[in-house]
Amino acid sequence: MKPIVWLASFPKCGNTWARLLLANLGAEEARSINSIGTGDGIASSRRRFDDACLIASGLLTHEECDAMRPALYRHLAARGAAAEDLLGKWQWIKTHDAWTSTAAGEPLLGGGTIAHAAVLIVRDPRDVVASLANHNGQTLEEAAAMMADPESAFAGRSDRQPHQLRQSLFGWSGYYRSWIEQTEVPVHVLRYEDLQAGAADALGALLAALGIAVEPARLERAAQWSAFERVQAQEAESGFHEAPVKLGTGRFFRSGRSGGWREELSEDLRLRIERDHAAMMARFGYLPEGKG
Which residues of the chain are under the pLDDT cut of 50? Predict the structure, then answer.
């Protein structure tokens, strides 16, 4: 058995960057953004579902797929090779799914018996909104409304077949609340802003909390190989296979800044986001204590 470590985040909060850092950590030469895994590296992969479940997910409703997903992740954990490497005896799998249950009451992601931990990657929602708008081809106001919508989802339409299975998001606050309040899987928070301030230190602290000791030199090298400018150059040269077909600017890796919201958001929109997410923003240190 090879238990899972979920790399969980609301979209556009740094999950891909975290995956690249982890890939470079165990590499002997720099990894490209297109070598960190295929679509199978995410929990919502249709191809992995179809191959493991021996049925085309496109023939099923979202609810029917959800009913089968817990068994899929139990299968992945049970079939995983237990060989240990630098990152431990675990499978590290990306998910944008909120922590939720199927209609039968099973945890969608298989529960605590198959997961070692979850890394919850968090980013200031005032910065997320511009990145999400670019990703979805939306206006800032539309992206902010999606982030506040408890019914929001990725790949949730029924009039076409998206490349991924449906992922219920619950909005930005609802997403993080769902993971923090569940009690089956230990959660370790990794803030995007801390990665940006010092990727080697933030990644080292996270791994230490998971019981993994890594030499500082290897952490620094992974941080250099995963620098945002380098990632942008790779996308400009070769594209990025996980990018959606349509992007507002044509770039998946748009700016990567923290605090860019100060120039990008109107005062009204900033206040709206802070009202929508005050409690959770305060919890993660994005608003002063007591304001949430």
Answer: 38-39
